[in-house]
């Protein structure tokens, strides 16, 4: 992660903390932290929040960020995506508001703190297992090679240290067990 991305993420995380919102970094940034590095132009976060908390985020981040209150409130109500843009750096942060139940909210509960760089700040990330599962889930609909490569990069780096029992239990319940088997086999684990 470059300094602009880290600085933008730190500001958003500070605002989430001020409002009392649990979050986890996911997407390519998380797969890069847990696996092989991939360049990313934005940061993806998953979070659970009420519409009141979403409005508070918008107020805290304004005017540094493009963060319309109505857009964040609607995303929190409908459990969809909203984008924030840092007006200083142009870095985009994608917020995925998820329900308080289900696989992704469970992934937020399982999050782990990871330092970015040798002396950089710590952020909450989804676990290596959960980033693999999320990548395979997103790929299920899009058939995106990028999602596959990100997941493969995590498996190649973490190999046997991954909790394979958890991975297969979740993959079975999410309907992506065949993809997980192919991923494991391609990684040579």
Explain what the structure shows.
With 189 residues, this protein is of the alpha+beta class. It has two domains: 123 residues, Beta Polymerase, domain 2, CATH 3.30.460; 60 residues. Helices cover 55% and strands 17% of the residues. The protein has nine helices and seven strands. The protein has a five-stranded mixed sheet with strand order 1-2-5-4-3. It has a two-stranded antiparallel ribbon with strand order 6-7. β4 and β5 form a beta hairpin. The longest helix is centred in the first third of the chain and has 17 residues. The protein is globular. 42% of the residues are buried. The mean pLDDT is 94.
Q: Keywords for this structure?
A:
189 residues, Beta Polymerase, domain 2, globular, alpha+beta, five-stranded mixed β-sheet, 2 domains
Order of strands, widest sheet? 1-2-5-4-3
Q: What is the helix content? A: 55-70%
Q: By helix and strand content, what is the structural category?
A: alpha+beta
Q: H/E element string?
A: HEHEHEHEEHEEHHHH
CATH topology of the largest domain: Beta Polymerase, domain 2
CATH architecture of the largest domain: 2-Layer Sandwich
Per CATH, the class of the largest domain reads: Alpha Beta
The pLDDT mean sits at 94
Terminus-to-terminus distance? 28 Å
Name the poorly predicted regions: none
Radius of gyration over alpha carbons? 16 Å
Largest sheet features? 5 strands, mixed
Overall body shape: globular
Extended strand count: 7
Number of self-contained structural domains: 2
Strand content: 15-25%
Number of helices: 9
């Amino acid at each position: 992660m470059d300094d602009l991305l880290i600085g933008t993420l730190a500001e958003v995380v500070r605002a989430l903390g001020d409002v009392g919102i649990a979050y986890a970094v996911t997407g390519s940034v998380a797969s890069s932290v847990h696996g092989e590095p991939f360049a990313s132009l934005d940061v993806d976060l998953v979070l659970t929040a009420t519409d009141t908390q979403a409005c508070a985020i918008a107020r805290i981040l304004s005017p540094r960020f493009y963060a319309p209150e109505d857009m964040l409130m609607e995303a929190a109500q409908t459990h969809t995506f909203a984008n924030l843009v840092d007006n200083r750096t142009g870095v985009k942060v994608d917020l995925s508001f998820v329900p308080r139940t289900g696989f992704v909210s469970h992934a937020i509960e399982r999050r782990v703190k990871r330092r970015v760089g040798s002396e950089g700040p710590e952020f909450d990330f989804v676990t290596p297992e959960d980033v693999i599962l999320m990548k395979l889930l997103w790929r299920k609909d899009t058939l995106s090679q990028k999602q596959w490569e990100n997941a493969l990069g995590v498996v190649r780096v973490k190999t046997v240290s991954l909790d394979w029992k958890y991975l297969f239990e979740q993959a079975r319940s999410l309907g992506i067990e065949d993809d997980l088997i192919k991923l494991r086999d391609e990684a040579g684990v």
